Amino acid sequence: MGDARLQPRVGWMGGWGVLAADVIVMASLAQIAGQYVFDLFNTSSIGNTANSVWVLLVGVLWIVFMTWICYIGIEVSANFKRPCWALS
């Protein structure tokens, strides 16, 4: 049987590729979320243009909110694993 793993350089490049794609996609999805928040509350006159300052502000708030949710999830997961480590 042959060795099926990737070379370290390929894994390194792939990891950075995923990170770069994630940053680009998250920025564009935050902009879309900002526009849809205004549509949700029927204030499309504010969020009708994608390059509006208000859409940018709401998009940034979405990123901050989602970062906070991820942080809380990491803390909950770490606190749950501590007793499991003590049992092993």
Plain-language structure description:
- The protein has 3 helices and no strands.
- Helix content is 82%, strand content 0%.
- The model has no long low-confidence stretch (mean pLDDT 85).
- The chain has 88 residues and is mainly alpha-helical.
- The longest helix is centred in the C-terminal third of the chain and has 35 residues, at 53-87.
- Helix 1 crosses helix 3 (53-87).
What is shown here, in short?
The chain is 82% helix and 0% strand. The protein is mainly α and 88 residues long.
The coarse silhouette is: flat
Total of DSSP H or I helical runs spanning 4+ residues:
3
The percent range for strand residues is: under 5%
Low-confidence stretches: none
The CA-CA distance between the termini, in Å, is: 34 Å
Radius of gyration: 20 Å
> Helix coverage percent of residues?
over 70%
H-E order? HHH
Structure keywords:
0% strand; 88 residues; mainly alpha
Question: What topology emerges from the helices and strands here?
Answer:
Blueprint: H1 8-40, H2 44-47, H3 53-87
Helix pairs in contact: 1-3
